[in-house]
Structure formats: structure tokens, C-alpha cells
Write a structure and sequence with these properties.
The protein has 391 residues and is an alpha/beta fold. The protein is 38% helix and 15% strand. It has 14 helices and twelve strands. The chain is globular, with a radius of gyration of 21 Å. The structure holds pyridoxal-5'-phosphate. Keywords: Aminotransferase, Pyridoxal phosphate, Transferase. GO terms for molecular function: transaminase activity. Belongs to the trans-sulfuration enzymes family.
Length: 391
């Protein structure tokens, strides 16, 4: 099997289709075959053991290389879920007594991992305000092994610049072995390539934009060969591997990632501009809007587009938000994001359900807050549906 990647230097659309590709021979299928097999023949002393939980069936390896090509990294890995990817990365580089510095704006289950699970294993975390550049450096201790961040953040869509974290890790000194890990689920490699900004490991809930059709649960990680090998070992031991059929669907999603992202970016910005002009709307959060607190940074870091998510607050609080949600016809109420169809949710019922209203308010998520994942429908239909619901 020829695994030479002839796509180096190509654009995102080309990489999404051909990245990490195996050059075919006459008679091969154009689409990589789905080999729905847990195991593969071989058992002699010199045979390489292939088993889908090891992440080494041919399609898992191909999509791993594609993820690496898209992220501009040496290696990539597909896992069974975004949380499988995140936990495998953390397990790979942390020992009892180690320390993490993390942005305080993180996905709920990641927060639980850091606040509940890792302390049970002797790993502690200091949370910092990630936009405060000095805070990363100040929080690093002798036992810090990971600096962890996410951008854009959920659901307030703050842009967190990974460069200060990368500089803090570098300035901690040679041999300190501190890795910067970034969850770039909301960004996608089309809008941001964190590795080009000093991030060591990029993680994704590939359930979202990478898969793109709300029909798989998947995770992905990209980084150096050595780091991905370490993460793969954790995936094998703790069992976060990806099922072959899911990987095949993920590969199909990646083929259209660039064109989908272009439309997600356009639709979200158009929806955000419409909402900003609407009298029933108190505030709109989208990094592409001039009114967003991180707009200048978004323009610098996200030159191709500022993402498919839009958050907004309706006048009238929680009751008004419930009413708007119930009146939407095209935009469906559901958690998750990044699929071709538009979805809406209220964080108070989903990601931030466990918090009090005061706690959410302190994070900038008051009752009345709605989060929309703008799909790739015709923009007039999408905006029209929201206009009707707000009328
Ligand atoms: C930013 C972010 N990271 C990680 C996850 C977890 O991904 P998964 O549900 O694929 O495990 C999610 C899920 O919503 C997410 O939004």
C-alpha cells in the first residue's frame, strides 16, 4: 500500500478529499472501502497485528492521515468520541501529582473531567481567564504538564488566542515537557489551524463539523508522531476506539468540510447581522460582528470565516426564549452543533443545566440566552424562519 501523501501544500478542499490518500490502482474503488471488520488475518511471529480497537484498520489509518493533513500536523488519530479524544490526550501525558492550567471557558464534560475525575487520580487544575495573557505564565508550577484551552468558547463564542499559552509553555524552560492542547471543535481546521500557532495537540469532537451531518459520534486528535503514538496507546488501553462504519461516515463528511464551512460561516454571519438589527434582541454574540469583544482577534486568527455559531439574548428573558424556540419551524431544538441542519438550544437546559441561574449569569449566559448552530440551508429561509419566530 502506497501511503505517500501527494497532497502536501494543497488547499483545504483538496485535503478534505485527498488528504492522506492511498494512491489507487486500476480496479480499486474510488471511495475508500468500508471494511467492517473487528480484526484482520495474521498471527505469525512477524505479522503486524491489526485490530480495530488498536486504531490500525486501513480506514482508521487513512482518516488519521487526513486529519493530520488538514491540521498541518505530522500525525492524526480518529477516536470513538470527542470526550474519548480529550480523555485519551489527558491520560497520555499526566501522572499522579501533575498539574494542568486550563481556560475557565470549557465544554461542560471537559470541565467535569478536570474538576471531578482527574482530582480522583491526583491531578489538579488551575483555571485561568484565558484572555489574560499573563495568567498562563503565572499559573504554571513545577508539576504543570498541560495547558488546555478551547476556542471559540461555548456558548459565548469568545476567541481565545493560543499563542500566549504556547509562549508560556516555551518560556517555562527546555525539558519541562509542557504541552499546549486545544479543543478546536468550534473552529475547524478550515477556519483555524492551531498547530501553526504553537499548539502541540489539536482535539475535536468530530461529531460536529468534521462529520457534519449529525449522524456520528466521533473524536479526532492531531499532533507530532510521538505524541499521537502516546495518545493511541491510551485509546487502546481505555477503549476509546472508533468503529469502522463511523470512520467511513467521518471520511465522507471530511470530503465536503471546506464547502460546508464556507456556507456555515456565511449563514452565521448573515443571521448574526439580522439579529443585531432586530428590536426583540438584546445582544448578539458572533466573532464576525464588529460589536463582539474579540472581533479584532477573530479577524486576525480567522481570516477565512468566524464560524457557524451565533448566540443571542432575547428581550423578556427565559419565557421569551422558550416562546421563540417553540415558534421556530426550520431551526430545530436540539443539543449539539455543526451539522448541515440548523439547531437551536438554550444553555440553561443543555450544557449549563447543572449551574444556578446566578452562576450562568456570571458567565454571561443569562436566562433568555439562545445558541444557534447555523446550518447550510438557503440563508433566506434560515433568516426568514428566525424573523417569523421573533415577530
Ligand atoms: C467543544 C466540545 N468539545 C468536546 C465535546 C465532546 O464531544 P463528543 O460529544 O463527540 O464526545 C463537545 C460536545 O458537544 C464540544 O462541544
Amino acid at each position: 500500500m502506497n501511503t505517500d501523501d501527494s497532497t502536501t501544500g494543497h488547499g483545504f478542499s483538496t485535503l478534505g478529499i485527498h488528504g492522506g490518500a492511498v494512491r489507487g490502482a486500476p480496479g480499486d474503488s474510488v471511495v475508500p472501502p468500508l471494511v467492517q471488520s473487528a480484526t484482520f488475518l495474521g498471527g505469525g511471529p512477524d505479522d503486524r497485528l491489526m485490530y480495530s480497537r488498536y486504531g490500525n484498520n486501513p480506514l482508521q489509518e487513512l482518516v488519521g492521515r487526513k486529519i493530520a493533513a488538514l491540521e498541518g500536523c505530522e500525525a492524526g488519530l480518529v477516536l470513538g468520541s470527542g470526550m474519548g479524544a480529550i480523555s485519551s490526550v489527558l491520560l497520555a501525558f499526566l501522572e499522579q501529582g501533575d498539574h494542568i492550567v486550563a481556560s475557565r471557558h470549557l465544554y461542560g464534560a471537559t470541565l467535569e473531567l478536570l474538576e471531578v475525575e482527574l482530582p480522583r487520580r491526583g491531578v489538579t487544575t488551575t483555571f485561568v481567564e484565558p484572555t489574560d495573557v499573563a495568567s498562563w505564565r503565572e499559573a504554571i508550577t513545577d508539576r504543570t504538564r498541560i495547558l488546555y484551552l478551547e476556542a471559540p468558547t461555548n456558548p459565548t463564542l469568545r476567541i481565545v488566542d493560543p499563542r500566549p499559552a504556547a509562549e508560556a509553555a516555551a518560556s517555562a524552560g527546555v525539558g519541562r515537557d509542557i504541552r499546549v492542547v486545544m479543543d478546536a471543535t468550534f473552529a475547524t481546521p478550515v477556519n483555524l489551524r492551531p498547530a501553526s500557532l504553537g499548539v502541540d495537540l489539536v482535539v475535536h469532537s468530530a461529531t460536529k463539523y468534521l462529520g457534519g451531518h449529525s449522524d456520528i459520534i466521533a473524536g479526532a486528535v492531531a499532533g507530532s508522531e510521538a505524541d499521537i503514538a502516546a495518545v493511541t496507546t491510551m485509546m487502546k488501553r481505555y477503549g476509546a476506539a472508533a468503529d469502522p462504519h463511523m470512520v467511513w461516515l467521518l471520511d465522507r463528511g471530511l470530503r465536503t468540510l471546506e464547502v460546508r464551512m464556507r456556507r456555515h460561516n456565511e449563514n452565521a454571519l448573515a443571521l448574526a447581522r439580522f439579529l443585531e438589527s432586530h428590536p426583540a434582541v438584546e445582544q448578539v454574540l458572533h466573532p464576525g460582528l464588529e460589536s463582539h469583544p474579540d472581533h479584532a482577534l477573530a479577524r486576525e486568527l480567522f481570516p477565512h470565516g468566524t464560524g457557524g455559531m451565533v448566540s443571542f439574548m432575547v428581550r423578556g428573558g427565559g419565557e421569551a426564549a422558550d416562546l421563540v424556540m417553540s415558534r421556530l419551524q426550520l431551526v430545530q431544538a436540539a443539543p449539539s452543533l455543526g451539522g448541515v441542519e440548523s439547531l437551536v438550544s438554550q444553555p440553561r437546559y443543555t450544557s449549563h443545566r447543572a449551574m444556578t441561574a446566578e452562576g450562568r449569569g456570571a458567565l454571561g449566559i443569562p436566562d433568555g440566552f439562545l445558541r444557534v448552530s447555523a446550518g447550510i440551508e438557503d440563508v433566506g429561509d434560515l433568516v426568514g424562519d428566525v424573523r417569523e419566530a421573533l415577530a
